Amino acid sequence: MTQAPAAPKAVRRRHDREIIALAVPAFGALVAEPLFVMADSAIVGHLGTAQLAGLGIAAALLTTAVSVFVFLAYATTAAVARRVGAGDLQAAIRQGMDGIWLALLLGAVVIAVVLPTAPALVDLFGASDTAAPYAITYLRISALGIPAMLIVLAATGVLRGLQDTKTPLYVAIGGFVANGVLNVGLVYGADLGIAGSAWGTVIAQFGMAAIYLVVVVRGARRHGASLRPDAAGIRACAQAGAPLLVRTLSLRAILMIATAVAARLGDADVAAHQIVLSLWSLLAFALDAIAIAGQAIIGRYLGADDADGARAVCRRMVQWGIASGIVLGLLVVLARPVLIPLFTGDAAVEDAALPALVVIALAQPICGIVFVLDGVLMGAGDGPYLAWAMIATLAVFTPVALLVPTFGGGLTALWGAMTLMMTVRMLTLWLRSRSGRWIVTGATR
C-alpha cells in the first residue's frame, strides 16, 4: 500500500467502529445462506437416500449457477458506495436499480437454459438411475427461483453500498425460517416429497426478493430515483461485472481442480478433502465479512474524493485481516481433535484430514490479507486487475496441483498447493494496493 502517516487513535477507533458495524451483520448474513441447503438436506434426508443424493446434485448445480453471478452484489456495492460518498443518493439508488434489472434479465436467461437441459446437467454430474429423477425434479423447480436469488444478490449489493448490512441479515434470517417452515409443510404436510422442498425454497427466495424490492423502491421514491429500466445503465453494470465474473470463474476452476486431484488420491483423501474444504469455506465467511465492509467503506471514501482516508482504512482493514486470520488459525489448531469426529469416524479419513487442517490453520493470516485486499480492490472498482490476477493465480496453481499425485504427499501436499495459491493471490493484491493505482476518486471510476 502507498505509505501514509499513521492514523491517530481517534481515527483508528472510527475505522474500527465502521468495520465492526458492517462486518458483524455481514457475517451473520453470509452464514445464513448455506443454512438453506443444510435445512433442505435435513428435511429431504428423511425421505430416503436417493432423494438426498438427488438434492445434493441439484444443489451443487444451483450453487454453481448462482455463485457465478455473485458480481451482482460486489459490483453494485462498489458503484453505489461511490455515489453515497459523493453525496448523490438519487444516483446511488438509480445505480442499484440498474443492477437489479440486470439480475432479472440474467435470471430469465438462466431459467431458459436450465429447464430444457436439466436432465443433461444431472447426467453430467454422474447421477445414478435412482437419484437422477429426484435431481431433475428439484433442479427444474428450483431454477424458477433463480431470478429471485439474483435479485437478492443485487439488492444486497445496493444496501451494502448504502452502508447497511443489518437489513440483509434480518432478511436472511427471515428467509431461513420461512424456508424451513415451508419445506416441512410441503414435504410432509402436503406430501409433495422432494418437489415440496424445492417449492418451499422458491417461495422463500421470492419472499426475500420482495422484501428487498420494497426497501429499495421506498428509497428510490424518497430520493426521486427512477425505477424504470435504463439500457445504458444496465449495460454499464454488465461491463463492470464482467471482470468479476472472470475472477469468480477462475476461482471456481481452482476449487474444481483441487477436488479432482483429491479424487485421484483415493476415497479416504477425497472424503477428508471435503471435510477440510467445508471448514476452509466456513473460515472464509468470517474473513469475507471484513472484505464486504471493505467494499462499502472504500467505495464511499473514494466517492468522497478522500484518497488519504481510503489508504488509511485499507491499512486498518489489513491489520484486521491479519489479526482475524491468526485467531481463526489458533481456533482450528485447538479444535482440531474435536472437529474431525463431527464429520467422520473413519480412521483413514481422520489421518488424512488432521495434517491438512494444520496447513489451513497456518495459512489463515495469509487468507485474511487476501480477503481484505480483494474487498478493497472490489470497492475501488478495480475489477480488470482482479480478473487478470486470478487468471495468473490459476496458471500457477494448476500445474503444481496436478503434480501432487505424481510426487506424493497426499492431501497435505494438495492443501500446501492451495496455500501457495493464496500466497500468489496475496502477492498480486499486495503489489496492486502498494502501487496506489487502485485509488481513483470520484462518483464513478
From TrEMBL:
It is found in: Cell membrane. InterPro entries: DinF-like, MATE_fam, MdtK-like. Coiled coil: none annotated. The chain crosses the membrane at residues 19-37, 57-80, 100-121, 141-162, 169-190, 196-217, 244-263, 275-299, 320-340, 352-373, 385-407, 413-431. The keyword Transport applies. The keyword Transmembrane applies. CDD domains: MATE_DinF_like. Keywords: Cell membrane, Membrane, Transmembrane, Transmembrane helix, Transport. It holds the Pfam family MatE. It is a multi-pass membrane protein. GO terms for molecular function: antiporter activity; xenobiotic transmembrane transporter activity. One of its GO terms (cellular component) is plasma membrane. Belongs to the multi antimicrobial extrusion (MATE) (TC 2.A.66.1) family. This is Putative DNA-damage-inducible protein F. It comes from Streptomyces formicae. The lineage of its organism: Bacteria, Bacillati, Actinomycetota, Actinomycetes, Kitasatosporales.
